[in-house]
Automatic annotation (TrEMBL):
One Pfam family per UniProt: DehI
Phylogenetic classification of the source organism: Bacteria, Pseudomonadati, Myxococcota, Myxococcia, Myxococcales
Species annotation: Myxococcus llanfairpwllgwyngyllgogerychwyrndrobwllllantysiliogogogochensis
GO MF annotation, one: hydrolase activity, acting on acid halide bonds, in C-halide compounds
Protein name according to UniProt: Uncharacterized protein
Length: 299
């Protein structure tokens, strides 16, 4: 597929900048993932997507569904051989602290992103997404980033280091477009660790059990998207009416969904390779909000 640009947080303007702000607070993370930045290249679609999907993302139901998906990922990989990259790479205490923080950030974010991507893909293909619940009736979570969450730091998609640039190219060739996934760009801050980890992650991706696990996760994400509390009113007709290329948006979304299971499986192996890593590092606190408040917030 043709290369699709990403909209950086620094470069976001207007509606995209507003959605970025709401995404960070609603998903309780310190940055905007590559998948979402890729969608933002179609700004009118991106704003409409968030208006359609945002009410679900802030609910306890969405949180629990994403956590359930992540638990499935962990269960799929727990019996696989240990990755061994964490223990064999020479990293100082400060480097390990920050690398661990990066993994906590992405294990918090990526299951949610996969659920969003599957929901949007199905909606664009005309499939029903979400239940017919009345807006504001589902339990919601407090917004805001946990104080101990690591900042989203990562290297450029085209880094100056030739070895890292070659490594990124191999990652994209293996997992699929568009762009270098955020967790690999983050781990690129420690090139020797990323190189060791990727050298051990890549061979497993060819195995039949990896492929079967990917297929199960993809179906699970779609099933969970159908069960979200509120309907997701988004369609290719709506995207076209907004003046965006609906077919291009659909192709990008399909590509993002296609690679999501493999990324989660690899992320699970990275997380389980770190001693005493939390499996739910950033739980959300509840809040109950009357219907009229929810309606006001969406205006």
């Amino acid at each position: 597929m043709a290369r699709v640009r990403q909209v950086s947080e620094h470069g976001a303007e207007g509606g995209v900048e507003r959605v970025y702000h709401e995404l960070r607070r609603t998903m309780r993370v310190t940055g905007v993932d590559v998948s979402l930045r890729t969608w933002a290249a179609y700004p009118r679609f991106f704003v409409a997507m968030w208006e359609a999907l945002g009410p679900n993302v802030e609910t306890r139901a969405f949180e629990e569904s994403a956590l359930g998906l992540w638990q499935e990922v962990l269960d799929s990989t727990v019996q696989w051989e240990a990755l061994g990259a964490w223990g064999t790479t020479r990293l100082g205490p400060s480097q390990r602290f920050h690398a661990r923080g990066a993994l906590e950030l992405f294990e918090t974010m990526q299951p949610r992103v996969m659920l969003m991507v599957s929901a949007v893909r199905m909606a664009l293909e005309g499939q029903p997404v979400g239940q017919q619940g009345a807006l504001g009736t589902s339990e919601r979570l407090e917004r805001g980033v946990p104080s101990r969450m690591a900042a989203m730091d990562w290297v450029a998609e085209k880094p100056g280091d030739a070895v890292l640039r070659t490594l990124f190219a191999d990652i994209v060739k293996t997992v699929g477009p568009p762009g270098v996934p955020g967790e690999y760009r983050a781990l690129g801050c420690w090139p020797s660790y990323l190189e060791t980890a990727w050298r051990r992650l890549k061979p497993r991706m060819k195995d039949e059990d990896f492929q079967r696990a990917s297929e199960r996760l993809l179906e699970s994400a779609r099933r969970r998207a159908r069960a979200l509390p509120y309907p997701v009113a988004l369609s290719r007709e709506r995207v076209s009416a907004l003046g965006e290329n609906a077919e291009a948006v659909l192709k990008v979304t399909q590509a993002l969904e296609r690679r999501s299971p493999a990324l989660l499986l690899n992320l699970s192996r990275l997380v389980q390779d770190v001693p005493d890593m939390l499996r739910q590092p950033m739980p959300g606190a509840s809040r109950l909000v009357p219907d009229w408040v929810a309606a006001e917030e969406l205006r």
